[in-house]
Amino acid sequence: MIEAQELVERALRASTADETIVLVTEVSEAALRWAGNSMTTNGVSRSRSWTVLAIRREPVTRVGIVTSSSVDADDIDAVVTAARTAADAAAPATDAMPLLEGTGSPRDWAGGFTGTGIGVFDEVIDALTDGFGGTHRLYGFAHHQVRTTWLGTSTGVRRRYTQPEGSIEVHGKRGGLDGPGAWAGAGTRDFRDVDTTALLGELDRRLDWAGTAVELPAGRYETLLPPSAVADLMIYLMWSMEGRGAEEGHTALSRPGGTRVGEVLTALPLTLSSDPAAPGLEYAPFVTATASTDAVSVFDNGLDAGRVDWIRDGAVHALTYPRAAAAEFGAPVTAPGENLLLTGGSSASIDDLVACTERGLLLTTLWYLREVDPATLLLTGLTRDGVYLVEDGEVVAAVNNFRFNESPLDLVRRATEVGATERTLPREWKDWFTRTAMPPMRIPDFHMSSVSAAR
Q1: Residue 296 and residue 134: Cα distance in Å, rounded?
Q2: Cβ pair 368, 383 in contact under 8 A
Q3: Which region holds residue 442: left if phi is over 0, alpha if psi is between -120 and 50, else beta?
């Protein structure tokens, strides 16, 4: 199989377009599954995907994009030619900008592919083997991926980045498949920081809470959101912070005559940020794009991506603007983030918030989040895998699931207490976004709009 760097160089040499961008991504994955207190499957895979973007500049700028998974060097010319043909037929590019000039260093570009293997799960397997002897039935999945991307352009850009990431989710059941269940999970780069035994201990605690069950009606409840639930809501907020949509009046970040940048949402000193250098949550410090959207442009490939504060000290601070949109609206160029951190709360843990609650609900995770109204960022969704009743500082019972209607923007406004930030795994968006650090949050009037029959 041809090496990734050589694939890039050969594709660039073969191209007859005015300008060319080539991205190669190699992925090594390891997966582990278990069900009913026994291991079921495991495996390792490796794949390659590469994209050629051919740019025609006359009479107007057009871009042709072709992606291939071939590992045969003889296919390079055909893919490059197909991209050039696609460019000839493409619609004019509304985000056209000059390509960046070469900014990569030899260290960015050099180096081969690094993979993963089943051995990354050794400590997980040991802990699960011990846990299989407990009073619960365990089900779950662990996944590890190492992804390396090479970016080369006809204007001299050469950049490379390796991204390791992984996750583990464990579901526990007591009393058969129809009995109470609980969930715990964690995100990681390499599983060295995952305490699987502690996850299993948390499952046992939640299953103990479910020994008593009560039914509650829909309504507004004081609700404690754990870091995982906060992550799912804040990710959707960050995904919605596109400058063009806000400027054109299409989103919840719009206001008459402009955007809501500068608007104070809360008196709490909260900062929502993305930072490619955040310890344990690192991501590529440059843009890689195989297609253009309102948030990112293929013409920005190789652009440096630094820290962005989406919300700073409680106020809306930044929106995403590719270079073309930034020039159009007179805004700073801002690339989307690939991690998300919410900071500025107290040192309180979720247990500390429970201890200070007279009566309320404690959630575990959220799922099936869908947008109801983009003008207010109103979302609907369901609670999942454990809703618990808190009375006089203690969890006293499990409660039925609910459907809820809430806006992440409104939750930031209405939060009365925010605790300590910790690495967490978003449940709903885990397949797309795992690198988050969030605090628990107290909402005095979380809207449970209806009772859900989901179990």
Answers
A1: 48
A2: no
A3: beta
**What integer pLDDT is reported at residue 178 of this predicted model?**
74
- Cβ proximity of 172 and 385 under 8 Å: no
Cβ-contact 447, 217 below 8 angstroms? no
The answer to whether 173 touches 132, Cβ cutoff 8 Å, is no
Which residues have CB under 8 Å from 343's CB, separation 6+?
270, 271, 273, 421, 437, 439
φ, ψ for residue 136 (rounded to 5)?
-110, 165
Chain centre to alpha carbon of residue 299: 23
Question: Which residue's entry shows tokens 């594709």?
Answer: 11
Residue 105's pLDDT is what?
Answer: 63
**Spatial contact of 407 and 445, defined as CB atoms under 8 Å apart:** no
Model-wide pTM > 0.90 = yes
The pLDDT of residue 447: 98
Distance (Å, rounded) from C-alpha 170 to C-alpha 35? Answer: 10
Distance of alpha carbon 142 from alpha carbon 159, whole angstroms:
30
pLDDT at 146: 97
What is the pLDDT at residue 8? 96
Residues 396/212, Cβ–Cβ less than 8 Å: yes
Tell me the CA distances in angstroms from 218 to 96, 243, 361, 371, one per residue in order: 50, 36, 12, 20
Provide, for the chain, the percentages of residues in helix, strand and coil under a 3-state DSSP scheme, each rounded to the nearest 5: 20, 40, 40
Name residues of the chain where pLDDT drops below 50. Answer: none
